[in-house]
Amino acid sequence: AQKVTQAQTEISVVEKEDVTLDCVYETRDTTYYLFWYKQPPSGELVFLIRRNSFDEQNEISGRYSWNFQKSTSSFNFTITASQVVDSAVYFCALSEPHDFSGGYQKVTFGTGTKLQVIP
Amino acid sequence: EAQVTQNPRYLITVTGKKLTVTCSQNMNHEYMSWYRQDPGLGLRQIYYSMNVEVTDKGDVPEGYKVSRKEKRNFPLILESPSPNQTSLYFCASNPSGQSNQPQHFGDGTRLSIL
C-alpha cells in the first residue's frame, strides 16, 4: 500500500530564513510520480512540481528547490529566503497506477505541513 | 480561462437533508475526482470518474454518491448528510487520469452539517 508521511505538522520561520519541508513516501511500484501542492490561506490548491521515479535530478525554480532521493524514499522541498507570501499549507502526494482500475492513477496525499513565515 | 468550478462555496445544513455539490470543468478532461480535506488527515479521495458513465470508489466513499452524465460535470451527492461529513471538499480534474498528471482543483466547498 502506498503512504506519504509529512512529519512536520507546523513550521514557523522568520522571513528570509531558509526552510525545508520533508516528505517521505512508501510504494511497491517502480514507476510512480511525486507532486507538491500549495494551499495558501485563501484555500485553493495549487500544483507546484511533479517528479517521476526515474529522474533523481534536483530541481530549482527561483527560491524553490526539490531534492528527490530514492534511496531514502524522500522528496523534500526547500524554500530559500522565505517570504510572507510563502505562508501556506504544503501537501506532498504520490501517484501511481491503480491496482484495479486499468492503470488510472491512485493518488495519496500526505497530511500537509503548515508553514508560517513571520515578518 | 481553464478552471474547475464548484458550487456552493459554503453551505450550512442539517442532518438528513439531501444536498448536491456541483463540479464543472471547461478543459475537456476525462478524469474527475472528489476529495475531502480534514485536519490531520490531509486529502482523501471519495470517488473518481474515468469518463462519462464510468465511476469508482476512492478511499472514503461511504455516505456519498456521484454521477457522470456529461464529461464536464461531476456532482457529489450526499443523500442523508451526517455531522461526520462536515469537511472541506475539493473537486479535481486532469486530462486522462494517468499517473503523471497533476490535479486541477476547484476552489473548494466548505460543508457544515449540524
First and last CA, distance of chain A: 41 Å
Helix content of chain B: under 10%
* Class inferred from helices and paired strands of chain A: mainly beta
Note the total helix count of chain B.
0
What is the helix/strand order of chain A?
EEEEEEEEEEEE
In short:
The complex is a heterodimer of chains A (119) and B (114). With 119 residues, chain A is mostly beta strands.
Which features does this protein show?
heterodimer; A: about 120 residues; mainly beta; 6-stranded mixed β-sheet; 4-stranded antiparallel β-sheet; 12 strands; B: about 110 residues; 7-stranded mixed β-sheet; 11 strands
Account of the protein in words:
- The complex is a heterodimer of chains A (119) and B (114).
- Chain A is 0% helix and 54% strand.
- Chain A has strands at residues 3-5, 10-14, 19-21, 24-26, 33-39, 46-52, 59-61, 64-69, 74-79, 88-97, 105-109, 113-118.
- The N and C termini of chain A lie far apart (41 Å).
- Classes of the chains: A mainly beta (119), B mainly beta (114).
- Chains A and B meet through strand 5, strand 6, strand 10 and strand 11 of A and strand 5, strand 9 and strand 10 of B.
Topology:
The complex is a heterodimer of chains A (119) and B (114).
Chain A: E1 3-5, E2 10-14, E3 19-21, E4 24-26, E5 33-39, E6 46-52, E7 59-61, E8 64-69, E9 74-79, E10 88-97, E11 105-109, E12 113-118
Parallel strand pairs in A: 2-12
Antiparallel strand pairs in A: 1-4, 3-9, 5-6, 5-10, 7-8, 8-9, 10-11, 10-12
Chain B: E1 4-7, E2 10-13, E3 19-25, E4 31-38, E5 42-51, E6 54-57, E7 65-66, E8 76-78, E9 87-94, E10 104-105, E11 109-113
Parallel strand pairs in B: 2-11
Antiparallel strand pairs in B: 1-3, 3-8, 4-5, 4-9, 5-6, 7-8, 9-10, 9-11
